[in-house]
Specification:
The protein has 97 residues and is α+β, with helices and mostly antiparallel strands. It has one domain: SH3 type barrels. 43% of the residues lie in helices and 33% in strands. A five-stranded antiparallel β-sheet has the order 3-2-1-4-5. Strand 1 and strand 2 form a beta hairpin. The chain is elongated.
Length: 97
């Protein structure tokens, strides 16, 4: 499975663009999307912009990523809560020996 991530082009020189991914900036090849302009959103996979998104598509995709991240963060918090009592139980068992 491949994953392409949306980012916003903030500048470019020749075939390399500076792309902003929610505050993280990376250099990306724009060879595959030659008509791209500053402030366009692009889908990036493996360092290459593979398509241009309109603003609505970009926002929808970014919102989906945000929801997935929030769910993962919440799930990690639940797993840590479950693990804490087990750790305490193991420590008590070690003390008995």
């Amino acid at each position: 499975m491949c994953l392409a991530v949306p980012g916003k082009i903030i500048s470019f020189k020749k075939n390399i663009a500076q792309v902003d991914f929610n505050g993280t900036k990376r250099e990306v090849s724009i060879d595959l999307v030659p008509k791209v302009k500053k402030n366009n959103y692009v889908l990036v996979h493996a360092g290459f912009a593979i398509s241009v998104l309109n603003d609505k598509e970009a926002m929808e995709t970014l919102n989906i990523f945000r929801k997935i991240y929030d769910m993962e963060k919440k799930e990690r918090g639940r797993k840590q809560e479950v693990k804490r009592p087990q750790k305490n139980i193991n420590q008590k068992m070690l003390r008995r020996r």
